[in-house]
Write a structure and sequence with these properties.
Layout: H1 3-17, E1 29-30, E2 35-37, E3 64-66, E4 72-74, H2 75-91, E5 101-108, H3 130-136, H4 139-144, E6 154-156, E7 162-168, E8 173-177, E9 180-194, H5 207-214, E10 220-233, E11 237-251, E12 258-266, E13 269-278, E14 283-304, E15 309-330, E16 333-350, H6 352-356, E17 367-392, E18 395-424, E19 438-450, E20 454-464, E21 467-469
Parallel strand pairs: 1-14, 5-19, 6-21
Antiparallel strand pairs: 2-5, 3-4, 7-9, 8-9, 9-10, 10-11, 11-12, 12-13, 14-15, 15-16, 16-17, 17-18, 18-19, 18-20, 18-21
Length: about 475
């Protein structure tokens, strides 16, 4: 049975039995005071009686009526439900008879005075496509025809050890809309230390000879990307969404080992774990995976206008995460690219049935529940680097090329609670075969709503400093 069916059954029984909302009191609450009603004042309300719906003197409140969903309940239960809901609406300024279809009656009041960030775009180049990054940072492309660098190829005249030291650790990027916050913290590092090699003739400047020569050197190279992504949700607090740590180490010496380390966690669950010591000359770490998420991240009691009670609600994280990893480690260096993908949303499910017990599945007159989807973050990241040396056309070239960019959309969508019920519009509810005699009134309360996502496009690094060495 669907969750909203559970809610529908439970709410009506609660209304009929006069169950106090206090039984649901928990530590975490989004209370009545956390909302602002979109109208002011009150309107007069006159309770309905059997005479308002019954033109047959033989019928009483104990007789059954047939609802639009073909369920049958006592007229007294219907009167209790409609009087409760419409009195609550009148108290906040809404005449239920004027509600046609869906009406938004209240919105959550953000406690943080933070405006929606302006659209962010880089002042550098727009992010490159994943295919372009993959082509630029592949061993085959570098060895066969070194890609055209963003700068003119330089020639280093001095025969000295070559050092590469690249890293970026910016302050975390933080985005807040309606008390929902996404914090994104990326960083990368790329290092290289290459000792001088003396070649006796041009024919030695080839891939095989270069590999043989560096095995007697102590050259070291590293490439790593770290990403931490967290979100702060009203009442629930901070949730660590995505965490990636990667570190690749290459050693030229024949007596040294390479290392490959990758750890990807989503909601504290480890999805990829790589921790290898490699003694062979070459090693490739290649992964292309995606994972579907649907995990409970917290619960809260949320006040619902119309019913004037708090409803237990579950918060779920859903979406797809993963990405591609293609890194080549050799005695002469490291070349690789990583393209994590992140697509995570929050959805709500009500757990009213769990609170009131499973025996209360009767009187299917009222529908109440939750809906919507808040897209926390959607998009891709690209990180790639090349560090080391290679032989191309009898030249020795130092690889010193790095690229990283982000193209993300954050905090878009809607989360809400709702109550809907059938309103009888004709003279005799006991002869209500005509579907035109019923109208559905639905009220909604927003927990979060924004139609425009915050766009985050940034090229953190795009810097090719490949050079020809005078060796």
């Amino acid at each position: 049975m669907k969750k909203n069916q559970f809610v529908r059954h439970g709410m009506l029984v609660m209304l009929a039995a006069g169950i106090s909302p206090a039984i649901w009191a928990q530590t975490k609450q989004i209370a009545k005071t956390d909302f602002v009603v979109l109208k002011t004042g009150t309107v007069a309300f006159k309770p309905y009686t059997a005479k308002d719906f019954n033109s047959d003197p033989k019928k009483t409140e104990n007789d059954l009526i047939t609802l639009p969903n073909k369920k049958q309940i006592k007229l007294s239960d219907y009167l209790n439900m409609i009087n409760t809901v419409e009195k609550n609406l009148a108290d906040i300024g809404y005449d239920a008879k004027q509600i046609k279809g869906t009406t938004l009656v209240a919105q959550y009041k953000p406690k943080l005075a933070v405006a929606l960030p302006a659209q962010l775009t880089t002042d550098k180049l727009q992010p490159l496509s994943t295919a372009t990054v993959q082509q630029r940072f592949t061993t085959a492309s570098i060895n066969n025809s070194l890609i055209i660098p963003t700068r003119n190829v330089l020639i280093k005249q001095l025969k000295i050890a070559q050092v590469v030291n690249r890293n970026e650790t910016p302050d975390p990027y933080s985005f807040t809309v309606g008390d929902y916050n996404v914090k994104f913290a990326p960083s990368f590092t790329m290092t290289g230390n290459t000792d001088v090699i003396n070649f006796s003739n041009d024919n030695q400047r080839n891939k095989d000879t270069l590999t043989a020569f560096v095995k007697n050197k102590n050259n070291t190279y590293s490439l790593g990307l770290n990403i931490d992504l967290s979100t702060n949700i009203p009442v629930l607090g901070n949730v660590t969404v995505y965490s990636l740590q990667s570190d690749f180490q290459a050693r030229s010496s024949k007596d040294s080992s390479h290392h490959s380390t990758v750890k990807l966690k989503v909601l504290e669950q480890v999805l990829i774990l790589e921790n290898k010591k490699i003694t062979t000359d070459n090693y490739s770490f290649t992964q292309q995976r995606s994972y579907n998420l649907n995990k409970l991240i917290g619960t809260a009691d949320i006040f619902m206008y119309g019913l004037n009670l708090v409803s237990p609600v579950n918060f779920y994280m859903t979406g797809t995460v993963g990405g591609s990893f293609d890194v080549d480690i050799s005695r002469t260096g490291i070349t690789g690219q990583m393209g994590p993908t992140i697509g995570q949303s929050i959805i709500l499910e009500s757990s009213v049935l769990d609170a009131i017990g499973a025996g209360a599945l009767q009187n299917n007159a009222l529908d109440a529940g939750v809906g919507g989807e808040l897209k926390l973050i959607q998009g891709t990241l690209n990180f790639a680097g090349s560090t080391g040396i290679t032989a191309v056309n009898k030249k020795i070239q130092l690889l010193n090329d790095v690229y990283t960019s982000f193209d993300l959309a954050l905090l878009q969508g809607r989360l809400y609670t709702y109550v809907s019920y059938p309103a009888y519009l004709c003279n005799s509810i006991f002869s209500a075969a005509d579907p035109n005699c019923w109208g559905i009134r639905r009220i909604e309360n927003n927990l979060f709503s924004t139609s425009a996502a915050t766009q985050f496009q940034l090229t953190l690094a795009d810097d090719n400093q490949n050079v020809d060495l005078n060796w």
